[in-house]
């Protein structure tokens, strides 16, 4: 196939199966991507060739599509992409923006006419379209199975583009730190001492996120309300049930779980720093409440299962079993709370899975509790 380089064409697939997937799967048409650009969909990527025009046989569901430009010395630019919930038989058209080096929606005077023309000529376009990588579909669905079209619409940036970091607005002239402040009239020795007592952040420009460029995640409730008494502060830090109740109120368990999956795949496929940070904050919150596990058993069973597939995809520095790895420490606390709250089977499954994939060990997990393993069993 001339459209791409270095891609397996699933030689084991029968012609009948391939034809069925072609007729029922969605199609992504892409125009103008320069040869040598890295293209990816979900966890599958390759370098495009001269004749690349898109991807066929895309299964129904959520998918992440991105491109990364290649520099003259082989260096790759950060990934820039979009998330879309592909419907059965849907045709999506994107074109390359040379100035911003990213994919953008196709601008056409008559969109419906263009889509009809593409549909009529799909068989002629077939040899220019890369087949979707079905070898990775099972794994992808385990990571995204609860994400709906509404999830994508609710949490995607308003601009529709996912970048590894959000775009920032430069500060105004009034907000810019000045070099001719009163401090500059002081001798250098004294100036150094004074500056050492100041908050360094006050010397930085006040950069704000460009409106519409950031993923629209839920604002997480604080573990401790601002007006809490000293006794209440201790209680909230010991168990974050109040914040979790607020997060999951009004039957939002499914929506929050989908948001957890969505934020993780934005990081996994799009390298989004903000998305990883959001996923990390949710883990920290959910790991700090035994009462919440008792109250939301179904939600936490699903969450423990999701972590089996998410944690092995983290960066290497977050996979080490060390006291400085807060992800490991939070998972350890979550397991302990899950055992005590009685969702033993799900906790054992996660613990066994992490021993096999990450070589994590949880020795002395119950050393904080002399009662050892709880006798409570799962109740469906």
TrEMBL record:
Pfam families: AAR2, AAR2_1st. It comes from Aedes albopictus. Belongs to the AAR2 family. This is Protein AAR2 homolog. Residues 217-363 form the AAR2 C-terminal domain. InterPro entries: AAR2, AAR2_C, AAR2_C_sf, Aar2_N, AAR2_N_sf. Residues 24-157 form the AAR2 N-terminal domain. CDD domains: Aar2_C, Aar2_N.
């Amino acid at each position: 196939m001339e459209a791409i380089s270095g891609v397996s064409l699933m030689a084991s697939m029968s012609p009948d199966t391939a034809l069925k997937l072609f007729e029922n799967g969605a199609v992504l048409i892409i125009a103008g991507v320069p040869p040598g650009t890295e293209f990816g969909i979900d966890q599958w990527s390759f370098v495009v060739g001269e004749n690349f025009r898109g991807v066929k046989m895309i299964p129904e569901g959520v998918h992440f599509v991105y491109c990364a430009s290649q520099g003259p010395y082989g260096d790759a630019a950060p990934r820039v992409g979009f998330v879309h919930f592909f419907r059965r038989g849907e045709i999506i058209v994107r074109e390359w923006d040379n100035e911003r080096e990213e994919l953008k929606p196709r601008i056409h005077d008559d969109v419906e006419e263009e889509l009809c023309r593409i549909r009529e000529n799909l068989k002629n376009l077939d040899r220019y379209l890369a087949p979707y990588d079905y070898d990775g579909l099972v794994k992808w669905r385990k990571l995204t199975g609860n994400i709906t079209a509404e999830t994508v619409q609710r949490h995607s940036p308003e601009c529709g583009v996912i970048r590894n970091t959000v775009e920032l607005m430069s500060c105004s002239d009034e907000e810019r730190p000045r070099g001719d402040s009163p401090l500059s009239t002081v001798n250098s020795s004294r100036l150094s001492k004074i500056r050492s007592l100041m908050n360094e952040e006050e010397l930085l420009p006040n950069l704000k996120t460009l409106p519409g460029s950031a993923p629209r995640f839920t604002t997480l409730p604080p573990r401790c309300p601002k007006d809490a008494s000293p006794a209440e502060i201790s209680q909230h830090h010991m168990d974050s049930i109040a914040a979790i109740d607020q997060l999951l109120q009004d039957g939002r368990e499914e929506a929050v779980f989908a948001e957890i999956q969505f934020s993780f795949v934005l990081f996994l496929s799009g390298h989004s720093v903000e998305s990883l940070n959001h996923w990390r904050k949710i883990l920290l919150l959910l790991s700090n409440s035994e009462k919440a596990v008792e109250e939301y058993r179904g939600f936490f069973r699903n969450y423990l299962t999701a972590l089996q597939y998410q944690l092995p995809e983290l960066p290497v520095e977050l996979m080490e079993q060390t006291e400085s790895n807060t992800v490991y420490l939070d998972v350890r606390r979550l397991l302990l709370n899950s055992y005590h709250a009685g969702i033993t089977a799900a906790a054992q499954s996660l613990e066994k899975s992490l021993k096999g994939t990450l070589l994590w060990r949880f020795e002395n997990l119950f050393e904080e509790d002399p009662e050892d393993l709880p006798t409570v069993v799962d109740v469906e």
